[in-house]
Amino acid sequence: MSGIKRSIKRLFSPITIMIVPHDAEKTYHFKMPSIGILILCGFWFSFTAYMINVGVTTKKYNDLKDKADYYYTQFVEVRSTISSIKKAESQLKTMLSHNKGKEDLFKNFEQADSGSVNIELIRQQIEESVNTVAELKEYLKEQKDVFYSTPTGLPGGDGRISSDFGWRTHPRSGRSEYHTGVDLPMSSGSAVKATADGIVVFADWSAGNGRLVILEHGFGFTTCYAHNSEIAVKVGQQVKRGDVIAYSGSSGNSTGPHVHYEIWKDNVPIDPQPFLHKDT
Questions:
Q1: Average pLDDT for 158-162
Q2: 226 contacts 271 by C-beta, under 8 angstroms
Q3: Could you give the CA distance from residue 205 to residue 226 in angstroms, rounded to a whole number?
Q4: What angle do CA 6, 40, 21 make, to 5 degrees?
Q5: With the C-alpha atoms ordered 82, 88, 89, 91, is the resulting torsion angle positive or negative?
Q6: Dihedral (CA of 262, 263, 265, 266) sign
């Protein structure tokens, strides 16, 4: 019992602390119990440990945030490229799933922590795949334009030809002449249709050709439709394959209702027969 009393007495025994400034003669001193000094030391150590812990935690948080931002950026970029290739893949599947012919194909054509090194490699591979698909898409687009600009099928009639392309004896004059197209018999007033997409460059009376329509299609193709009874289009009008551009008749230098049909390629008349029965 007497030992405890001595320990308590030591804790509360005063200790004198002296402060001696170097630039002054006067000194400062004060007294405080021993237990007070122990409490102050304990508080200082606790505060220092707390501040160190806060600093370490803040640094870890900043590091984790930087990593999260980096991975999020990588994820968004990869997700964007994957979305592009899926879109391109879907377009190709749609195009290739239509096996009814070129027209169906072209109609549907219009309608895209593994470590940073691996993600970059995946991104590059995806970009290469997208570029390959884009090149294929561009090729198909060009082929589509060629397809729709190439005269295909009959402008009218049932396929019979009353006068072929080439040298012949004119049915009215009896003279030998070069026939620059084919004559397709048609009943008067039947629809005459464009055989390719194009623009009307002539739609008027033209002496021996009667009422004549001329279409420019691009890629060097021009088509002519003569001896019509009525013209249904105007100069500058855009037409699609199958659009009605005139009605058959026997106007101009003609012996009966028919359509005189010509195809020109690079300003030279060519035989239309190989184009009359192509699949559309």
A1: 93
A2: no
A3: 9
A4: 105
A5: positive
A6: positive
pLDDT at residue 123 is higher than 80: no
CA atoms of 245 and 264, how far apart (whole Å): 18
The pair of three-digit structure tokens given for residue 5, joined into one six-digit string: 């009393």
Q: How many CA atoms lie within 13 A of 139 on its CB side?
A: 7
Tokens of 106: 């072209």
pLDDT in tens, 242-278: 999 999 999 998 999 999 999 999 999 999 999 998 6
Beta-carbon-side half-sphere exposure of residue 23 (alpha carbons within 13 Å): 0
CA angle 210, 216, 217 (to 5 degrees): 135
Tokens representing 174? 């009896």
Structure-token match 């940073």, residue found: 116
For the chain, percent of residues with pLDDT exceeding 90? 41
